[in-house]
Design a protein that fits this description.
By secondary structure, this protein is an alpha/beta fold. The protein is built from six helices and seven strands; from the N terminus they run E-H-E-H-E-H-E-H-E-H-E-E-H. The two termini are 44 Å apart.
Length: 193
């Protein structure tokens, strides 16, 4: 699968290769590039070399627990979606994963393949919406900054007089200034900033 064909990069972290193999089989029809790691240290190396969209980690691993690992992922890669797998339904482990790693989903082993696929799709849609939201916010802030600068340079340029129906009223004393010319002047002033 080429990079253009994959819609996401998924990192599966489990010290038992048969678990990562089962997860890979569950996701085989999805347009994901699948990476695997058998420890938190190996997973950290993968994260350093790939822009990973989703990390699914086992909770019970030698050395570092999945929730500790995902807490570190949250700090270093806050926009990476984090999910956890656990063979034991411990309330303490679930609370720790949610609080420390801000996990998107807590799965019990063996995890239902259909549930996994659906959750992955949902999580990636959520991530795309968050990215679009951040992009729109940056664009809005840039435009607001430009408008603020323009208002400081030309006071009252942004003040529009409107009639009772909300239509913009042009001051006839401006003489030959057409609305198109006025808009062109405003666009030109904004683009020069």
């Amino acid at each position: 699968m080429t990079v253009q064909q994959c819609s996401a990069i998924v990192l599966l972290v489990d010290d038992e290769p048969n678990i990562t193999d089962a997860l890979k089989r569950a996701l085989r029809r999805e347009p994901y590039e699948i990476l695997t790691a058998q420890s938190a240290a190996e997973a950290q190396q993968r994260l350093e070399h790939h822009h990973v969209d989703v990390v699914i980690s086992d909770e019970q691993m030698p050395g570092v627990s999945g929730s500790e690992f995902l807490a570190a992922v949250r700090q270093q890669y806050p926009h990476t979606i984090r999910m956890i797998l656990s063979g034991q339904a411990s309330l303490e482990a679930a609370v720790r994963a949610i609080n420390e790693g801000e996990v998107y989903r807590f799965f019990l082993k063996p995890c239902n393949p259909t549930d996994l696929v659906f959750t992955m799709r949902q999580a990636l849609t959520h991530k795309r919406l968050e990215q679009q939201s951040r992009k729109l916010l940056r664009e809005f802030q840039l435009q607001a900054s430009r408008l603020s600068r323009l208002e400081r340079q030309s006071p009252a340029i942004m003040h529009l007089e409107t009639d009772d129906q909300g239509a913009v009223v042009l001051d006839e004393s401006d003489g030959d200034c057409e609305i198109g010319d006025l808009l062109a002047q405003i666009e030109d002033a904004i683009s020069r900033r």
